[in-house]
């Protein structure tokens, strides 16, 4: 949301400038100093600036609705974001080995599957034990016609002796195997996702650096054309075009920073870390849950 809001602020500036430019050209056309072609181009640029602003406002509204849904808030609830939130321009990453170390003990879904497998292993053992017939041994007392009492022991075995509970055993073993296969697949997918995110974050770091360099160059160019416009060495159309390029470069930088922040959140979820370890930091010392605030 921060990225889109920053882009909206820039888009509003563009729309205001395009409106001013359009008014200037309309006056020039009325005076006969500019042609209708220039007016048509200015009108098209003004419409495009308005469309870009509306698209960004739509994105912001959708993101606010999604955030309210995630937080369990009513759709009309007011969400106030801190003004001190700064989007990252560069993220220093640890090695992939650091992020993968101890992954099975941090990811809640992997822990749940492991606990489920252990529980199913116990169920298989119970089913195997139940396949053996129950043997009962107890005293027997009998009397004959002479009233002679005879005591002994009786042995009872439940039938059938063989093939007892084979279906139940097969079912429990199949369930155990299914949990094992799911666990292995999840671990494999987690490793692949982490490597993919690391690659994407590194590439986004490079994109942001290139966008910031282009933004700096365009800023100098705008200053040059601003001075030229004041001296009468260029016209407003050229100046506004260069200024618009600068704003577009700034919007691109904000968009890339937003992508970088989203990728970092995805990396935290994929690795089970609350904060991604710094380069050289051990995965053991990195926090996996929020720190409790100290009460005075």
Outline of this structure?
By secondary structure, the chain is mainly alpha-helical. 66% of the residues lie in helices and 6% in strands.
The CATH class label of the largest domain is Mainly Alpha
Please tally the helical runs, counting DSSP H or I stretches of 4 or more residues.
6
Q: How many strands, which pairing sense, and closed or not: the largest β-sheet?
A: 2 strands, antiparallel
**Name given to the CATH architecture of the largest domain:** Up-down Bundle
Report strand %: 5-15%
- What oligomeric state best describes the polypeptide chains here? single chain
Number of discrete domains:
2
Q: Return the average pLDDT rounded to an integer.
A: 79
Over the alpha carbons, how many angstroms does the gyration radius reach? Answer: 36 Å
Order of helices and strands: HHHHEEHH
Helical fraction = 55-70%
Report the principal-axis shape.
elongated
